[in-house]
Amino acid sequence: MTRIADIPTSRTANFFRFQRDPLGFLLDALHMGDVVSLRTSSFRPTFIVNSPEFVQEILVHQEERFRKGRSSNVLRRTVGDGLLTSEDHTHREQKKYLKPVFYKERLQAYADIVVDETNRLAAVLEDGVPIPMHDVMMRLTLGIIARSMFNTELDADKAELAAAVDDTIKQSAKTIFSPIILPFTVPTPGNVTHKRAIRTLETMIYDAIASAKREPERYADSLLGLLLDTVDEHGQPIPDHEIRDQMMTMLLAGHETTANALVWSWYSLDREPEVAGRLHHELDQTGKQAGAQAGAFERFRTLSYTKQVIQETLRLYPPAWAILREAEQELTMLGDVFPAKSSFLISPYAIHRNDHVFGDAAAFRPERFDDGPGQWPRFAYFPFGGGSRGCIGTQFAMIEAVLIMAVLGEHFRFVSVEGQSEAEPEPLVSLRIKNGRWMVPHRR
């Protein structure tokens, strides 16, 4: 018996509904079937995948039969052929030489940088003075990724670089959802803005590469230093353009996602006073127990409830709200046959909101993670993807988000500025709060 269900609405209606409200469209399709056919053309059929079993087939068991396809083609315009967009043998080789960047001893050093940068921010926040939380978190995580990965200080240029990152993300999202991808050579306002933003980021990256070549000892412990010391399978050094692609990938994928998740966390804590109270109690207790000599990484390991707050944020508001895959050849999954050139849309945002799995799934309840994610089917909760293409920086992202919340949460509670409506998710390349969120830091 097939596990594929046809969507009842027309192809045209589906297209316009998805363009207008992709998240609502995906949520409506969640309980239509394990796999929902959008009844598109037989030449390129499209399916929404709702079942964790099918997700596991696509991301793990048969992952070699899929490509990232259109989404990667769009992102490649910005980040080039880095780890996020490369395929097959190239992706495997890149992942192999990037793995040491996230070894435990490096994560411990990164944790210290996270705490140092967040303490700098805490020192300049003014009690009772509203801040644009999205912008503040973006600049904070941008500074952290630049120091951690590139050993580069961005104080003077942080605003300009954060704006450039924002431009690339907005323009990439518009292109992903557009039925036509216009080449960069067409001077549309969007393309002009996008190309200017890429030049801004590239200038910083190539300056850092040149500096690292002049002073290799200074960059020895950074991603940049590792890349400059790495040789490929033929014994050749990695060319500058490939280093540029990896650095651009880390710059964009390595901080905007965490910043968005943190904004959602602060917003959720403001709406759930009991959760915020339990979080602050843990921070106060662990802060006293840790003492002045405890390292940042050791502190991270004690923050069990703070970690659950982040996990619950990633359940309700996963930055990677959609995962796209394309099958080049006909394949069989769990008894169903899918034609060549089939496209599959997997939405962690929708799957994470399945009441049959989570119970009261729309509620923000971090304690549901008391028993860990292993209590649910493997791909009922997967904010970092899975398989060989799962996020290589998962541990770094969790350490960063938890420690930022700990440092700022020890000193402040954040309250939304009055007059703002309920936060509305905006599904760009990653999931952010539409129009940002103004919040007031109140010193504790």
From TrEMBL:
<keyword id="KW-0479">Metal-binding</keyword>
<dbReference type="InterPro" id="IPR050196">
    <property type="entry name" value="Cytochrome_P450_Monoox"/>
</dbReference>
<keyword id="KW-0408">Iron</keyword>
<dbReference type="InterPro" id="IPR002401">
    <property type="entry name" value="Cyt_P450_E_grp-I"/>
</dbReference>
<dbReference type="InterPro" id="IPR036396">
    <property type="entry name" value="Cyt_P450_sf"/>
</dbReference>
<keyword id="KW-0503">Monooxygenase</keyword>
<keyword id="KW-0349">Heme</keyword>
<dbReference type="InterPro" id="IPR001128">
    <property type="entry name" value="Cyt_P450"/>
</dbReference>
<comment type="similarity">
    <text>Belongs to the cytochrome P450 family.</text>
</comment>
<keyword id="KW-0560">Oxidoreductase</keyword>
<dbReference type="Pfam" id="PF00067">
    <property type="entry name" value="p450"/>
</dbReference>
<dbReference type="InterPro" id="IPR017972">
    <property type="entry name" value="Cyt_P450_CS"/>
</dbReference>
<protein>
    <submittedName>
        <fullName>Cytochrome P450</fullName>
    </submittedName>
</protein>
